[in-house]
Amino acid sequence: MADQPMPARDKRKPAAYGRGIVIFLVLAVLTIIELLVSTAMGGSLVLLFIIALIKASLILQYFMHVSSLWREEAH
After folding, report:
1. CA torsion, points 54, 56, 62, 63, in degrees to nearest 10?
2. Which of the four pLDDT bands, split at 50, 70 and 90, describes residue 12?
3. pTM, whole model, 2 decimals?
């Protein structure tokens, strides 16, 4: 059974898991930066809004797969 080649779908899983972990870590770091900005910098609303937009775009792109809506092969 070990001699059989992996299906193409199974080959993409490790890369997808790795990318998910990286995005999770980036979101965690951005959350820590938000906490620091809100406490140490007096809560700059502009900076907090920019960080929130970055986090929202990462979530939309990597976890909600919004970009696949505009590709024909994704349906």
Report:
1. 160
2. confident
3. 0.70
